[in-house]
Specification:
mainly alpha, 14 helices, globular
Amino acid sequence: MAHTVLGLRDIGAEAALLAGGGRAILLQLANPAVGHAVADHSDFAADPLRRLRNTLSYVYALVFGTHEQVATVRSMVHHAHAPVRSETYDASDAVLQLWVAATLYDTAATLHARIFGPLDEASADAVYRDYAVVGTALGMPSALWPADREAFDRYWRAQLVRLEVDDRVREVGAQVLHPASGPLWMRAMMPVARLATAGLLPPALREAYALPWSDRRQRRFDRMMDVTAHLYPHLPARLRHWPKNHLLGRLR
């Protein structure tokens, strides 16, 4: 049964959405302009926890933070993006900002539907409209965000067929999913993260990244998602929203 929310603030704090981080990153990298710039930036995977923390802080601050916190994370993201450039990539390119925001929206919407079930039409529209801020906060013109979910679906399908994963991008993807550094707890969680990433990616992109897949892995992924959908929504909000509360607290 479809359920109702008021907007992004009602779903954006859910820690379960973090399971889609690998999917969003690999989708972003498959845009050749993004992927090749990152491939040339040799320390991309040097501190994966810091990069994850910065991305989450950015989204959480945009949705839940104060004006001061928003200013802090915008400066943080601009600083992180500054050295990641190539002949075809500029972090201030509105078209690429749109793609990054689109991957975050589509990933969150996909995971939320899988764990909590579908939203009603009005709620889904409200969440979609709210997600534009992920791009506009970096300078993307608001008019560039597709007008509605139907327009977004057309944009999304058109982008998927243009994605390319060559050896350089595939290597960066492998670094993301097999980090050589980071705390022990994070590396211990990576097998689950790799399964979630592969299962959530479109099959063609999963194959392009040479991610192992089989009927057995599909069953494991489906079981993992079914168990999550059964248990996670019943956890106390203080646990489900802990990453959001913790990271916003660090920005004060």
